[in-house]
Structures are given as C-alpha cells and as structure tokens.
C-alpha cells in the first residue's frame, strides 16, 4: 500500500518507505515515513508493550528503510495529513550506516557538482521527485497524442556507420575492426521509415552530441522526442502539429500537477493558445534592432543565437502575450541539406519557448535530384549514400521535428540548468556517476 492510499480509520495497513525523520522524546517516538506519494507519521508510545519497537527506533538512523504494519488512526490534531499509524510490527529492510555526504533536503548547502556526485541522494529531494513525475506526465501525454493520431513508434539504431549529419560533432568508437559513431539523432532513419510507407512515426530515445559546450542548455547525451510524418503540404502542417502536441502535453501537466508545481517551483503551467506567433528572421532582426538596439553578431547572421532567442521571447511576450514563437526563413547555409527550399529559402523553423530554442523543424526535401544537389553543396558524398538510396524509389512529401525532453522540463519548471533537470547529467566534464 502507498501512503496516498491510506484512508480507512482503524484499519490494519502495511507500508514501506524511507525514514524521513525521527523525534525521540521522553515518553513517545515519532517517525516520519515517506514514499513517492507522500509522508505519514508513525507514533510509538514508550511502554513495556512496545519495548521491542522502541529499541528498533533507538538504533535506527534516518534514511534507513522500514516496513511497518499497524493500525491507521485518523486524527485531526496530527498536522501531517491528519493521520498516524500505531505500529504492531516494524521491520528494518535496510540501514543507513553513515552520515549523508550532502544535505539533500537543502540543495543550497552544496554546489551542483557535489550534488551530482551524489545524485542518488540528491534525487531524494521532494522537488526532484515532483520534477520527474511532471516529466513523466508530459511525455506520456505527448505519446498518447501521437498514438491517437496513428503514429507508429520506431526504435532506431544508436550505433551508426557514418558520421553523416551536419551541424554537430559525433562520438567515434571502435566497432570490432572498423569505426562507428553514436547517433546524433534518428533523422535519417525516421525518413527511411516514411520511404518504407509507414507514413507517421515517432521515437523517444537518447541522442548524442560531441559538442564541447558547458552552457546551461547543452548536454552530450539527452532524450529526444522525434516526430516525422508524410503527405504534408508545407512546413505549416508541421508547425500546426507541434502546436497541438505541446498543447496536449502542457494541458495534462496543468490538470494533474499545476497546483503542486506552483507551490513547489513557484511556476505557472500556462497552456498556450493556437496559433503560436510566427515571425520571419529578417523581420525579427528589424524589430529587435528598433526595440532593443540589438545587432546580430556577424557569424550568426542568417541564424539565431542565445541573446536573440531571449529577446525574441521578450518581444513576443510584450507584443502578443504568448510564451512561444516560430521563427522562419533562415539562411540556407545555416540549415541542414535535407531541408526543402523554396526560392532558396529553407522551409523550416525554430520554435522558441521562454527564451530558448526547443525545436528545429522543417519540410524535408524528398526529391532525389534536388536532395543530391543540396548534399553536394554541403560537401557530403559517400557518407550519406545509404541515406540517398531512400529517395531513389519514391518517397512521399514529409516533414518533422524533435523536442529535447530534458530541455523542455528545464524550461517548463524554470530550473535554470539541464544539470538540475536530467536524471543523470552528461557533459564535457562529466561521465560519472
């Protein structure tokens, strides 16, 4: 039985959990037991009948785990949920043998890297527990949405034979007698599925980026929610579907955890309205210059950078009262070769949320000869031969996008860093625990 299931007065119950706190007074012992659903008070009177139970608690350290069988008593005088358990049996299922190296109940007492060294303890913090409940809710709601819209789930390989996708470095490894690489994304294999006639596919899986970046928003391994679907008319169809997907996910989080998130994180879960604002990159540059005297760095012209993303969100919030904005019409030399172009302009977008890019999406180029030409422009040849073969035998018009689950969680709960958001963080300087 879980703590949140306790409700019948004078009933016999058995619960398991961590010893959160012990108060050992002259005539009574109070033990606060916690599991993933909450906390409950165990009350032990110090008398001859309870001698063995009192002895167990006398020799027990907080953070040990116990199994308690006893009588549930509803009592309005009990501050903790108005109930207590009067135990008949206490079984110690594991013991905490040493003082904790960090105080997980007070994250500010240790720096983030020390906390990550003891992540298994840091995750015991109630805030972290709620964060992963929220993330589970969010991902599950989006999964439900794509499944209800006839998407097929695929599981693409993470070991690949060619460092083929532009835009990021790859991790190289020894694969028997040859080189292999960790996949940066399932992009090529998603498109292969559409060339196979699957029409609509998704995947939730790890991706790997060998970027030597120590920013708040980058990691060398992260979880990606990838979507790709056929028979679109333009990238507007892709943007529209992403709007619906995010609305579905955020609506479920607000419904299930909105009040708790507000209490614990002091963040409102806002469900966006559709359509999200859309701004062409050139128009955005002009508005940012006029309103904030912002000038894009020369090397980033035709693209976005951190500062422009933050200002774009500020602009859209002031102008439309919206947290999301699609930026379109990027420079072709800043986009992947497989993005379809119209009059030389890539038919894709970046989606910005709370000052940070969460998606690069696009209509893909599915016509073999045009795709081949665009690949050659990027200097890609033999490495993508297997990919080019997908388009020789017919492939429907299609598009898609990917969302980083960890980054979405960071922005939704405003934690400030992926180190806080990821179950186990991986960065240039961290490969353990």
**Apparent shape:** elongated
The helix/strand series, from N terminus to C terminus, equals EEEHEEHHHEEEEHEEHEHHEEEEEHHEHH
SS-derived structural category: alpha+beta
- The residue fraction in helices comes out at 25-40%
Rg, nearest Å: 27 Å
CATH architecture of the largest domain: 2-Layer Sandwich
Write down the CATH topology of the largest domain: BirA Bifunctional Protein, domain 2
Question: Spans with pLDDT under 50 lasting ≥5 residues?
Answer: none
Mean pLDDT metric: 96
Number of helices: 12
Which CATH class of the largest domain?
Alpha Beta
Descriptive keywords:
single chain, 433 residues, alpha+beta, OB fold (Dihydrolipoamide Acetyltransferase, E2P), BirA Bifunctional Protein, domain 2, 2 domains, five-stranded mixed barrel, 31% helix, elongated
Please give a quick description of this structure.
This protein has 433 residues and is α+β, with helices and mostly antiparallel strands.
Describe the protein in words.
The chain has helices spanning 51-58, 112-117, 119-122, 126-148, 187-195, 235-265, 281-292, 306-320, 368-377, 385-388, 405-413, 418-421, and strands at 11-24, 28-35, 38-45, 65-74, 83-94, 152-153, 159-160, 172-175, 178-182, 200-208, 221-230, 278-280, 324-328, 341-342, 345-346, 348-353, 356-363, 398-404. It has twelve helices and 18 strands. It is elongated, with a radius of gyration of 27 Å. With 433 residues, the chain is α+β, with helices and mostly antiparallel strands. It has an eight-stranded mixed sheet, sandwiched between helices. Helix 4 (126-148) packs across helix 11 (405-413). The chain folds into two domains: 3-94, Nucleic acid-binding proteins (OB fold (Dihydrolipoamide Acetyltransferase, E2P)), CATH 2.40.50; 122-421, 2-Layer Sandwich (BirA Bifunctional Protein, domain 2), CATH 3.30.930.
């Amino acid at each position: 039985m879980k703590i949140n299931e306790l409700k019948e007065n004078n009933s016999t119950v058995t619960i398991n959990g961590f010893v959160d706190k012990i108060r050992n007074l002259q005539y009574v012992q109070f033990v606060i037991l916690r599991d993933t659903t909450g906390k409950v008070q165990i009350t032990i009177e110090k008398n001859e009948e309870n001698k063995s139970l009192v002895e167990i608690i006398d020799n027990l350290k907080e953070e040990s785990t116990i199994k308690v069988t006893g009588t549930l008593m509803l009592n309005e005088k009990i501050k903790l949920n108005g109930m207590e358990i009067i135990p008949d049996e206490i079984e110690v299922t594991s013991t905490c043998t040493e003082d904790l190296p960090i105080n997980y109940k007070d994250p500010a007492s240790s720096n983030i890297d020390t906390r990550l060294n003891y992540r298994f303890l840091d995750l015991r913090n109630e805030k972290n527990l709620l964060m992963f409940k929220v993330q589970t809710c969010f991902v599950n709601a989006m999964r439900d949405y794509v499944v209800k819209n006839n998407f097929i789930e695929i599981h693409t390989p993470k070991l690949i034979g060619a460092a083929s996708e532009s835009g990021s470095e790859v991790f190289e490894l020894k694969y028997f007698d040859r080189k292999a690489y960790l996949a940066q994304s399932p992009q090529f294999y998603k498109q292969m599925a559409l060339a196979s006639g699957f029409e609509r596919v998704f995947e939730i899986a790890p991706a790997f980026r060998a970027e030597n970046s120590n920013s708040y928003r980058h990691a060398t391994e992260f979880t990606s929610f990838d979507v790709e679907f056929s028979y679109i008319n333009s990238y507007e169809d892709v943007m529209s579907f992403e709007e619906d997907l995010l609305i579905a996910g955020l609506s479920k989080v607000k419904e299930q955890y909105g009040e708790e998130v507000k209490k614990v994180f002091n963040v409102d879960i806002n469900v966006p309205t559709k359509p999200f604002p859309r701004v062409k990159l050139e128009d955005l540059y002009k508005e940012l210059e006029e309103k904030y005297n912002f000038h894009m760095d020369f090397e980033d012209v035709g693209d976005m950078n951190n500062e422009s993303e933050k200002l774009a969100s500020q602009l859209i919030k002031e102008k439309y009262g919206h947290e999301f904005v699609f930026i379109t019409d990027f420079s072709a030399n800043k986009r992947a070769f497989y993005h379809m172009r119209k009059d030389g302009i890539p038919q894709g977008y970046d989606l910005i949320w709370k000052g940070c890019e969460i998606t690069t999406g696009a209509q893909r180029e599915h016509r073999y000869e045009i795709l081949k030409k665009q690949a050659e422009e990027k200097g890609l040849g033999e490495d993508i031969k297997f990919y080019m073969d997908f388009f020789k035998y017919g492939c429907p018009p299609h598009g898609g996008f990917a969302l980083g689950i960890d980054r979405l969680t960071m922005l939704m709960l405003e934690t400030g860093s992926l180190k806080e958001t990821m179950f186990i963080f991986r960065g240039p300087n961290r490969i353990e625990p």
